[in-house]
Amino acid sequence: MRELSDGELSGYNGSNPVALDAFRAGAAGWCTAAPCLVPQRVLELYAAVVCGHDDRADALLRKLLPFLQFIVRHGLPRAIKAGLDIQQRLAGPPRPPLLPLPQYETRQLREMLTDLLAGRLPPSAV
Known about the structure:
Layout: E1 12-13, H1 19-24, E2 29-30, H2 39-50, H3 54-73, H4 76-86, H5 103-117
Parallel strand pairs: 1-2
Helix pairs in contact: 2-3, 3-4, 3-5, 4-5
């Protein structure tokens, strides 16, 4: 698209697993719900890509991917609202017909968020 439009048309990625491939192919952005819960980690990933720190970007996406897959697999509204509740940013329950995330999955999400927010990420590959 970029080549055919002489760089006039920007592309955005909406698929978490191929975020890095899309950026490396010239995507201008990434449409993901992840920044609702882990904005700093998504910014770190973007910065690594933009700065050409490919090893770091790859490591960051590997670290984020289980979380990204989880929120999609369990439904973005349910997973994001549960994550916001975990972070004491009360967003209320999802609107019917959606149901809140079950307790077991909420515990899994809490563990992922604790790990991601604690900064246990790969060292910079500068």
